[in-house]
Amino acid sequence: MHVIIGLGNPGTEYQRTRHNLGFYVVDMLARRWDIRLSRRTFLSLVGDGVWRGEKVLLVQPQTYMNRSGDAAVKIREFYHLSLSDFVIVQDDLDLPVGRVRIKRGGGGAGGNRGIASLITSFGSKEFVRVKVGIGRPPGRQDPADFVLQPFTRQEEASILPAVEKAADAVEMILTQGLDPAMAIFNVTSETSPQ
Questions:
Q1: Of the candidates 123, 12, 19, 4, the residue with the CA atom closest to the CA atom of residue 57
Q2: Would residue 2 show up in a list of annotated catalytic residues for this protein?
């Protein structure tokens, strides 16, 4: 089973914020794979199904960002999964708006409290992350405030293609493996993979 967890915050007040890009990508995958996110379990909104012959579980934790690990560890324990069965989709301040990057383990949370919660709950950094760039806040704006704001109109033009690209990255990880996906999506140019 593959578990794809999109990080975000529940509630309509957060629905269109930068910090909810993980939810956007899970919603996109749910549409592509014809999976309904309709069950409330594991402290999450969950949809399960089969994609290309593999069982998949799409997850949007309903714990708020800083407790995302609580939901993930419940899923891991219930299904007896290894960390290699998880793909985490997150927003990333250190990537330009719209850039997608894949990472396996290493490093820290990079200021993302959802990732910090996962590292604590899993007891390890060794899980796959699909990062979607939201850029840095302008001037001296507090990053914590910035991530909870909606995208500007200019940024919105880059967001849908980035969500599509992140969904493509998840699919490639599942079908071709992590290394081929990283070779395609971790390019330094701004061009989209074909």
A1: 4
A2: no
| C-alpha to C-alpha distance for 4 and 34, rounded to whole angstroms | 15
3-state secondary structure 49-87: EEECCEEEEEEEECCCHHHHHHHHHHHHHHHCCCHHHEE
Mean pLDDT over residues 170-192, rounded? 85
Bridge partner residues of 40 (DSSP)? 45
Catalytic residue among 7, 8, 19, 128: 19
**pLDDT, tens digit (0-9, with 9 covering 90-100), for 31-68:** 999 999 999 999 999 999 999 999 999 999 999 888 99
- For the chain, the farthest-separated pair of C-alpha atoms sits apart, in whole angstroms, at 48
Torsion sign, CA atoms 127, 132, 136, 141:
negative
Closest by Cα among 11, 2, 67 to 29: 2
For helices 21-33 and 153-176, the axis angle rounded to 10 degrees is 60
The mean pLDDT of 86-99, rounded to a whole number, is 91
pTM for the full predicted model: 0.91
Domain over 2-185 is classified CATH 3.30.450.40: no
Residue recorded with tokens 């330009």: 96
Q: How many CB atoms lie within 10 A of CB 122?
A: 17
